[in-house]
Structures are given as structure tokens and as C-alpha cells.
Specification:
about 230 residues; alpha/beta; Rossmann fold; 2 domains; 6-stranded parallel beta sheet; 4-stranded antiparallel beta sheet; elongated; XdhC family protein; MoCofactor_Util/Proc; XdhC_Rossmann_dom
């Protein structure tokens, strides 16, 4: 691979931006492509699929054999709230391959005893986000039920274009949240991206079941990036 392409790939990976290298096998020629770039003729579907799945693939196009090597940032889950659901959610998310961060200023909840071997931040979300900004390969799950803690990271996630934004609470609670977010400058389009009540509707009841519903919703959002939204 050309060193200039290798340097470009490494720069994109450090910046947590998805990138792919298309190698023309007969010639050995390489071409770098970023997510959102126009794909070469005949490769649009293969490139789009690779950026969704993270799977590299051998393809045939215009009589040529090409290898599409894709690099996606490790998916990251920021959980706002060190509650019972978060304990189960963090474990399941790690098994699913997510880098997990727990953020909660309430030191009675955010303890190493309750979240062993996890990246735990006993601070306000605005403090955490100042040092660890969000990005499009981050999912945010706000589960404290406290608008003083949840609202700011939800708005930040919407503004950043996080691939998933979910918030715990009833429909009545969410209606109040929507009003506050609109007043803070969020658009109707942004509001529509919030998964609330959070998680897939599987009839979950216990904290562990709710955690399963949330991670399933997050994985679905990750693997359908760029696809048209499902109707209603």
C-alpha cells in the first residue's frame, strides 16, 4: 500500500472516522474512500454495506476483482446514570464489543463497587464531555430520570450526530423532555431521533431485560446507519 494512503487511513482512524481502501487486485493499485464520498462505478452498494457492517469484502465490478478493506471506529456507548439498568447494560454492551463509559455526578451511585472494571466518571456530564467529546460512532443512553443530568448530554448527542440517542422515561416524561429540548434549540427533526421510551419494545420489565432491549436497539441503529428510516 502507498505510504500516503496508509498515513491517511491512520489519520482517519485516530479521528474516529470510518474509512475504506479499495485495492484493484490485478494492478495492486489502492484507492482511499471515506464514508459519504462518491463510490466508484458499480461499488455503491458494496461500499455502503461495508460501512454499515464493518466487514471487508471481495467484489467484482466492471470485470475487475477488487478488495474493499473497511475500518470503522470502535463503537462507544456513553451511559448517563449509574443506575441498576446501567450495571446490566454495561456488561452486555462490552460483550457486544462496545467501549463503555458511565457518567453520573451522584457519588452514591457512581462507585467502583457497583461498576468494577469499568470506565466510571463521577462528574457532571458537561465536565466529562469537555474532555471526551461525542462523535457519530457514539451511542448515548440517558437513564437517570433527572433532567438536570440527562438533558445536556441528550442535546449534545443530537447536535453531534451520535448514531443513537435514547432516554429512559414514560411518554409523559418524554413529552416534558421534548418541551425543554425545543426550548434549548433542538429541532423537531433532532427530537424525532430520540429513542424514547428507550430500547426495543420487547415487554422488558427487570433492569436486565431493559438493558437487553436497549443494547438491541443500539445495535440495530449502528447496523442501519445510512438506510432509510422504517415507517412509523
Amino acid at each position: 500500500m502507498d505510504t500516503s494512503i496508509l498515513k491517511a487511513v491512520n489519520a482517519e482512524r485516530r479521528a474516529r472516522r470510518p474509512v475504506a481502501v479499495i485495492t484493484h487486485l490485478a494492478e495492486g493499485r489502492c484507492q482511499l474512500i471515506r464514508e459519504g464520498d462518491a463510490a466508484p462505478t458499480g461499488l455503491h452498494e458494496a461500499v455502503a454495506s461495508a460501512f454499515r457492517t464493518g466487514k471487508s469484502v471481495l467484489v467484482e465490478a466492471d470485470g475487475q476483482s477488487l478488495f474493499l478493506n473497511v475500518h470503522l471506529p470502535p463503537p462507544r456507548l456513553v451511559v448517563i446514570g449509574a443506575v441498576h439498568i446501567s450495571q446490566a447494560l454495561a456488561l452486555i454492551a462490552q460483550i457486544a464489543g462496545f467501549d463503555v463509559e458511565i457518567v453520573d455526578p451522584r457519588t452514591a451511585f457512581a462507585t467502583a463497587d457497583r461498576f468494577p472494571n469499568l470506565s466510571l466518571h463521577a462528574e457532571w456530564p458537561e465536565q466529562y464531555l469537555a474532555d471526551a467529546p461525542l462523535d457519530p460512532f457514539t451511542a448515548v443512553a440517558a437513564v437517570t430520570h433527572d433532567p438536570k443530568i440527562d438533558d445536556l448530554p441528550i442535546k449534545a448527542a443530537l447536535d453531534t450526530g451520535c448514531f443513537y440517542v435514547g432516554a429512559l422515561g414514560s411518554r409523559k416524561t418524554h413529552a416534558s423532555r421534548v418541551k425543554r429540548l425545543l426550548e434549548s434549540g433542538a429541532s423537531e427533526e433532532q427530537i424525532a431521533r430520540i429513542s424514547a421510551p428507550i430500547g426495543l419494545d420487547i415487554g422488558a420489565s427487570s433492569p436486565a431485560e431493559i438493558a437487553v432491549a436497549i443494547i438491541a436497539d443500539i445495535v440495530r441503529a449502528l447496523r442501519t446507519r445510512g438506510l432509510p428510516a422504517e415507517p412509523g
